[in-house]
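Progress narrative, work stream C.
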Amino acid sequence: MRVRLVNGGLEVELAPDLGGRVALLRHDGRDVLVPMGTEPFDPDFWPKAGAYPLIPFHNRIVEARLAFGGRVAHLPVHPESAPHALHGMTSRFAWEIETCSETAATMRFDWTASPVWPWSFRAWQQFELTGTSFVLTLSIENRDTVPMPAGLGWHPYFRGPLNMTDDASRLWPMGADYLPTGQSRNAQPVDAEMKTRYLSNWRRVAVRWAGGTSMELRARGLSHLVIHAPDSRYTCIEPVSHLAGLVDHEIEGMSSLSPDAVQTSQIRLCFGV
């Protein structure tokens, strides 16, 4: 099932049954994201296309194990990041459309505590098109009886090739296993050979494509940023709430969410700036 939103020059297709993904995003008829096809896919081998939520954590959890508050999460090892877990669980399951209009929609996801993630939570993605902006609000609510670790983020595959500049002031070094290796340092100058960067202290990312399409990405409540550009086919610009490489909740930016509390972040793509 696809849900289509349109406003002015912006067009979006949502695929709630495919992990709550954005399957298509166009501005003035041009693809902004690599568009997803309609074929089914293995939840562990998702297409390098569209965009998906990173909830309740992003990137890697070391050894696929997380101990927090007397409970232990035993997450599945991801085949492409073994022996670690990768990118939360919510993009592996269907989401439910809660509200929908011509220009806005809300998806909801409910998780019941299990050995994989021993805390119950509810998550939302709220999408809105304003005519010149795509706005995504991410939320997670702790529906358990004890505090839980929580993080938010978004993983888009922007169509390449593109030109990009960011204003992040901090760079977190990482090893060959994509795990952070130490404290952050000044992010400048950028090493042209660095295909993946873990950044923080950022406000905006400016993107321009051949043909004149321009976009500015901003976020609220997401202090970290992952840039992944393996080749010219796509660039992942991922606003996230915490640093990669979670080890038993000892990680920069990961929050402890109290019972009934809600953590919210917002991502805004502004076009023609």
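Work stream C, second folded protein:
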Amino acid sequence: MPASTTAPVDLPTGWCATDLGPYRPCGSTYEVYSSEGLPVLDPALLDGGFGWLGGPGDRASGHAAHLAALEAELAPLGLRLPADFRTFYGSARLCGAFDEVSVTACWSDLSRPLRSPVEDGARLVRFLRDQQDCVLWYLYLRPSGEAFVVCSPADFAYAEGLDGERAAAFRDAAAGSLLRCAGTFQEFACRFVVENELWSYLHESDADGPLAPYLRDYLDRYAATAS
């Protein structure tokens, strides 16, 4: 991974997750799966309003003040949170979806803007972490307006509390761990929720029982991708 630069960097891609029963094995808590081997998400689920989760509703979440502070800190840098991220974490109905479905006890933990270890003008916003910090997920923001999701075992918030040289050393050491795992936040949200719901279905209930259409569609797509 190159040292920090102002030019966009091509990050390696992959999906960090656990098994899906007979559809996808996993030798440990998590593995990184090739992006090319993942099923294409149903475009109907990517409506920007999370309608498949019931939509945002009218009640604001407890993250509202934090989101406003993030926007205020990002604005002077020419950056902003994407609408799908604001909708999800700004909604009392939606914001707990990851915590509720995660089979590895991941929990939402929003950070302030964190410096990218590979691009000077970009920032990371941590939003989700594994209970043992095996992996953390970040919104990655570029001055171009591009916003996507990356993951890493490194907590880049730690570097913010270090002095200049130690912070730089931490970022340099962790730069190579960044993995681009979704092109947009809503793509990440959809795949994360669907896969965790499917894990529970495949491991904790009768797999021959009724399954929500969007979950059945994902399994069918996975079987077709693997064949």
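Strands lie at 15-17, 31-33, 107-108, 114-115, 123-129, 136-141, 147-152, 179-182. No further action is required on this item.
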